[in-house]
Amino acid sequence: MKAVLAKALGGPETLVVENLPEPRPGPGEVLVQVRAAALNFFDTLIIQGRYQYKPDLPFSPGGECSGVVAALGKGVSGWAEGDRVIAHLGWGACRERVVAKAERLVRIPAGVSDEQAAGLTITYGTSLHGLKNRACLKAGETLAVLGAAGGAGLSAVELGRIMGARVIACASSPDKLDLARRHGADLTLDYAAEDLKAGLKRLTEGRGVDVVYDAVGGDLAEPALRAIAWEGRYLVVGFAGGIPKIPLNLLLLKGCDMQGVFWGAFVERDPAAHAANMADLLAWVAEGRLSAHVDAVYPLEQTPEALGVIARREARGKILVRP
Ligand SMILES: NC(=O)c1ccc[n+]([C@@H]2O[C@H](COP(=O)([O-])OP(=O)(O)OC[C@H]3O[C@@H](n4cnc5c(N)ncnc54)[C@H](OP(=O)(O)O)[C@@H]3O)[C@@H](O)[C@H]2O)c1
Could you give all domains of the chain from N- to C-terminal order, each with its CATH number? Predict the structure, then answer.
């Protein structure tokens, strides 16, 4: 079985493709033939040992995939060979076949393609958890999304629209903003061309935004917080641009909340709420209300090139690899 392997910590160029022995599912496990594995920004960090999860070497990148059930371990019920499934693994999906715990699989409904399903769980799961379970975003509120054309950001734009918010997509170029607009953004702001705080104030007639969805951090976090409305909620989602330090007095002055969004921990701590969110997301994709937009699909062997696209800030929505 072919697998992309990190055998030493380093950049995408250090990954190798090797043949591994065929995996066998143990009790309670399922063997899945991978149709498409999805890459996320954290894959660029995990292979360098710079992410919050540090798997033992060697390991494969790829936190999630879609595929088909190929064999069942002892004691598994409710699944049959040929069933189309999503497997959320954390890492290890960039290979031809993976073994997953049966209870962690999610069935792919009709109307959702293998490609749409492959990268849905982490980005849309995080955004729905953040906007619904953490910020309690309400219809009519204003939502600013930073990094709005990235995997997580584009999902937040689409979900904000579904939840009835007025969505301001913020990104670093006109073509990224154009993509966000085509996915439901009401207004756009190019933070490479305009000051983020001034732009958000301008677009909200000085009132500020009710909810900020921040998967970028870095130099954008403080100006975004300075543009938040009274009793606003600031979702701390990710740090593609670096981990910022925030002056605490801003929270007092705005009467606002900063809320951590740790989707992986939410999945472990509240599996029922996660399952409900996944059911909503898959139904919305099947109904055509969410795009689960895929930017590009690379052959498995080109996983290093695919990760390079994400690391160079060039990805628009999801990047997949296909065995
Ligand atoms: N909290 C959670 O549970 C959770 C779950 C999933 C992901 N995340 C985090 O969310 C962040 C985004 O993940 P993603 O998979 O959506 O990433 P992505 O598709 O690569 O998007 C990240 C966006 O960040 C912006 N950016 C700014 N500086 C960048 C840099 N140096 N390199 C790359 N992008 C940069 C880019 O937008 P512009 O060019 O428009 O600025 C880019 O579109 C990551 O930090 C990830 O770890 C957190």
Answer: 2-119+292-322 (3.90.180.10), 123-262 (3.40.50.720)
